[in-house]
Amino acid sequence: RSDAVWRADLKVAGLGWVFSTTAYGTTSSVSHSAICENVSSPFIAECLAGRAAILDAASSGVDHFLLESDCQQLVGAINSRSVILEVHGVLADILISISSFSSFICRFIPRSSNVVADTLAKHCLNLYGQNIG
Hints:
By secondary structure, this protein is an alpha+beta fold. The protein has four helices and five strands; from the N terminus they run E-E-E-H-E-H-H-E-H. It has helices spanning 42-59, 72-80, 88-98, 115-132, and strands at residues 2-7, 12-23, 26-37, 64-69, 103-108.
């Protein structure tokens, strides 16, 4: 799952993503967060969070990947392989990276189901805001 929060005044996004893996009946989760500067919109922030999750999974050798996001526009763009000028480069990175998985699914989830990734993104952005203020 991935999520992002954006501060217009700083043009900064906090990104959060969570991996859950199940092996031998046991599920484990790993959480990640990051800051991205010079981000010009909330949609770009959401795309950056999705890309971060996908790149992280690809570099970890994950074979099957399910990306869940509460951003319908991102899910739609990935699933339709859309060209959206605002996020063209980020979407191109996503589409290239998902080819490394044996299977890839991207689906929308409600914000209420994405609390952990959202909390990670908000916490990361709050820490950034405290350190520059």
